[in-house]
Amino acid sequence: MADPKGFLNHGREVAKSRPVDVRLKDWNEVYVPGSLLPIISKQASRCMDCGIPFCHNGCPLGNLIPEWNDYAYREDWTSASERLHATNNFPEFTGRLCPAPCESACVLGINQPAVTIKNVEVSIIDKAWEGGDVAAQAPERLSGKTVAVIGSGPAGLAAAQQLTRAGHTVAVYERADRIGGLLRYGIPEFKMEKRHINRRIEQMRAEGTRFRTGIEIGRDLKATDLRRRYDAVVIAAGATTARDLPVPGRELKGVYQAMEYLPLANKVQEGDFVAPPVTAEGKHVVVIGGGDTGADCVGTAHRQGAASVTQLEIMPRPGEDRSPGQPWPTFPMLYKVTSAHEEGGERVYSVSTTHFEGDEHGNVQWLHLTEVEFIDGRLTPKPGTERKIPAQLVTLAMGFTGTDRDNGLVDQFGLDLDERGNIARDADFQTNVPGVYVAGDAGRGQSLIVWAIAEGRSAARGVDRFLTGASDLPAPIRPTDRSLMV
């Protein structure tokens, strides 16, 4: 245990953010570098040795949170890093991007602010990189078996690293020009600088994982040909089919899916463009969708110099405290102010877009909306509430409906889909095609980064057992497991 009275003696402190007027001038991460280390030992001491660590239930990876909290409290960073990596391949990703369902399940959170688990996690891994505690773990011997991983997001990378360390020869295929999936081109630089991905890729290369970019399975390489080349295949292609908004005016220029808009800003940071082909500069921007992707669009538009930013959400504004219907330790839907929201803009709830209006050149100029309310359990427009707002750039951030079907991957493999349109799999994450496995959003549907890594680790065990007859790799979750929600 850390400090037996830590949670009594210390309040919750989180990472400090750089001033808004400063951080809007660059694309660096919003937090003050090094601001956590002076406070993190005390924060880790708030972990209360609760007997039954419900944070384990909140985290699908089964992270050993009380253990590495104790090591962080004692400033034993090497041991903390070892415990952290025992269950998580990429804690610098989750420590920056995960919404921390572990904190929602923290026992201290019943009647006090929860332990800053996410901040402790990122402090440990950053200290580990700084101290040289993160090294390549190449296998002692090779199995002679080969595995192809389709997709280089968190699920694909986790599966690839686990299988490489088990001694298999692994090649990761990515249709984009760089490795990382949505981590690379969907997450803005101000949320996670891409140097964190780059050094993990170098670690994986040193371990023996091979990477093939610019190859889309189904289009550039037939799925059937890939299956013949490798002893096993892991599909970790994500759920990249975006939910659309079929209203009049959708075809106007200036209306984009979020994943058409966000990657262009990231490509500027990679040096591919001097300026993005689609920019918010000087424009009235409307973001449709109130989730994390919508917030990413908001922060990106601020940095590009938007004239105004408005974020629309069809659901009512969540409360700031747990409702009776979302008791501890479930993950509650709460009103959340992200760093992007701190930077400005307006958030409008309980509204639905009716149509877009353009100018004579086919460019979007106005968004027409109406307020909505629940009547008999259905969202219904409120008469007399119609209005329009200026909109010269609109981004649709309404989530994703499933894996890409247009490239032929699903049909070429002959894969079965479940009732939700995801790729079906058995208890070992294997599809109906022997030797073909699926991990991450392609099989689970749109989810969190921590679930993607857990899926990649679990699918790796299934593949390893398929190739060798047995496996010592961990499998933290089953395909049927779901978040701790009501």
TrEMBL record:
Cofactor: [4Fe-4S] cluster
Matching Pfam families: Fer4_20, Pyr_redox_2
Gene Ontology BP annotations: glutamate biosynthetic process
Pathway: Amino-acid biosynthesis; L-glutamate biosynthesis via GLT pathway; L-glutamate from 2-oxoglutarate and L-glutamine (NADP(+) route): step 1/1
SUPFAM superfamilies: alpha-helical ferredoxin (SSF46548), Nucleotide-binding domain (SSF51971)
Domain called 4Fe-4S ferredoxin-type: residue spans: 38-69
Keyword Transit peptide: no
EC id: 1.4.1.13
Keywords on record: 4Fe-4S, Amino-acid biosynthesis, Glutamate biosynthesis, Iron, Iron-sulfur, Metal-binding, NADP, Oxidoreductase
Listed GO MF terms: 4 iron, 4 sulfur cluster binding; glutamate synthase (NADPH) activity; metal ion binding; oxidoreductase activity, acting on the CH-NH2 group of donors, NAD or NADP as acceptor
Reaction catalysed by this enzyme: 2 L-glutamate + NADP(+) = L-glutamine + 2-oxoglutarate + NADPH + H(+)
Top-level taxonomic group: Bacteria
Protein name in the entry: Glutamate synthase [NADPH] small chain
Gene that specifies this protein: gltD
